[in-house]
Amino acid sequence: MTVNVISAGIATTIQDLGRPGYYHLGIPMGGAMDRLALKTANLLVGNDEGAAGLESVFVGPELEFTRDVTVAVCGAELPPKVDGEPRDTWTAFTVKAGQVLSFDFLKSGARIYIAISGGITTPVHLGSRSTYAIGALGGVNGRPVQPGDSLPLGKSSKTVKDGISVPVALRRGPSNPAELRVLPGLYWHRITEQSQDSFFEDTWKVANEADRMGYRFQGGRKLEFVEREQPFSAGADPSNITDACYPYGSIQVPSGSEPIVLHRDAVSGGGYFMLGCVISADMDLIGQLQPNMPVRFVKVDMEAALAARKEQAAIMDEIRELLS
Amino acid sequence: MSSRYTFGGDEHIFVEVDEEMSLEAFFVSLSMTNAVRNANIKGVTEICPANASFQIKFDPDVIHPDDMMKELKRLEAQAEQGENVLETRIIEVPVYYQDPWTYDTLMRFRERHQDPSATDIEYAASINGYDSVEKFIEAHSGAPWFVSMVGFVSGLPFLYQMVDRSRQIQVPKYLRPRTDTPRQTVGYGGSFSCIYSVRGAGGYQMFGITPMPIYDPEQSVPYLKDFMVFFKPGDIVRFKPINREEYDAAIAQVQAGEYMPRIRNVRFSLSEFNADMDGTNAKLMEALYDR
Predict the structure, then answer these.
(1) In this predicted model, which residue has the larger pLDDT, A160 or A122?
(2) Across all residues in chain B, what is the average pLDDT?
(3) Which chain B residues contact residue A233 at CB under 8 A?
(4) Does A189 have pLDDT greater than 80?
(5) Which of A278, B29, B38, B157 could bridge B54 with an S-S bond, Cβ 3.0-4.6 Å?
(6) Residue A244: closest CA among chain B residues belongs to which residue?
(7) Residue % of chain A over a pLDDT of 70
(8) Phi, psi of A261 (to 5 degrees)
(9) What GO molecular function annotation could you give as one example from this UniProt entry (chain B) (predicted)?
(10) E strand map for chain B
């Protein structure tokens, strides 16, 4: 009862919904960057929402199965194929023992989530199977998936309807330009009023340094800092602070030039000021941004952030109802 | 000191105790985070103390951010009445200063350094006014350190030296971060030492290496069987200079599963320390070495 990895695609890792509770030790929550996509893929194949699946970036893996399984691929538009025959994303389909699941070229988005009935059952580390390669936790012996790996599968408990699909209206991907809503805060007061405006006025582009730890953005005007004598232990650059915790979604701008939004595998702290956070409702979207994509940051207040969170939760509830 | 409270998105509250580092600010961070833990507030998911600040992560579906903010401010009043006394442990961490492995690594990244003609430790000694590296090592290992934060990556401790501000070593980080740092490198950036728990990128100056494992996800190291991360905020550390022979012997012990760090339980009072720093540190050394 295994899935055999023939080729690994790009940065393919085992992910579930992560391991909260250890961030104070520098171990991030990890888990799927696009949580809605993983949860939906799991529900489509009859798994618990938090079962472990595969996350791939831009290029999917080639997988061979040793038993009949149900598979669903959600997130990016990276069309799956079974023995070369096309299948739909966001849709449950059968792969028979001996057949090979592979992928066509990327059409939109960045990350796919492959759920397999029964889920992947590699060992649990600190409550999760999510791969955190820096700390050698989860995954396959603490690392991403490689060709030749045999991934164990659990028993599927629920029979599912082959061909069941999530309507397009419930699938979420970034617009063009993508919009990420931001709640200003943290060290917001460190930049000038003019820079507080320019950050939201400018269109940024996703840089090549974009991974599970964080996404870097380029192209907007450099941020200017309010003058001050740097506090003891903060470091000489005006963008430095006394090393502190970094919230998930926090936006640091080293030397004021290129914003970095920390994601699920965030470094838990460091010495750069942060101007606020991307709101929780928009974190999933970041996982679907490709390099060079234009992005606008949109200023919101707490009320709007909580309303957006509710809206996302309602969409998830609708998907649950549809697939229950 | 007046703490500044701010939201980090809709899931975090970030509290800056002070803009600058001090043991006072660190103790407030530690007692506040302990108070939050003891209060068992519904919806709290992560409690993260840092050097002079701390952060609480919560689920806004369970507790409204404004209510979470009120709870924290209510706890601050209580935590301020704390005695600034800590029951903790002191640990000897052996350090092979100027070892060949961090030397090889620093030579690969000279173009990212402030002074490509000097090693990291030569540079640090010189800009802090020491006339030799030996004297600098004496200062770095001569007074103990507080673990004031664990983080960045898995189990990496930041340490702040227990001396008055005039004796604090200050060294800028690399101009551009390295892409490689050996595991268990003893580093320095700003006014903090650190020990790199895993191999990887880093911007701190590299002074040496310890043979003592501090992070073990496989938990095969005997003293990491209970938990894979060794350090916690509030630990006190004494860096003990060792030579190549002692380093090799310690590594052999680690490999045989026989290495045990020297650890003693101690009681630390911040007010006693402020009244007599050298005297308090001497007592800590007596406790560590059973004198």
Answers:
(1) A122
(2) 95
(3) 20-21, 51-52, 168, 170, 190-192
(4) yes
(5) B29
(6) B50
(7) 100
(8) -100, 120
(9) ATP binding
(10) 4-8, 12-16, 44-49, 53-58, 85-97, 145-150, 157-161, 185-189, 192-195, 205-209, 236-241, 263-269
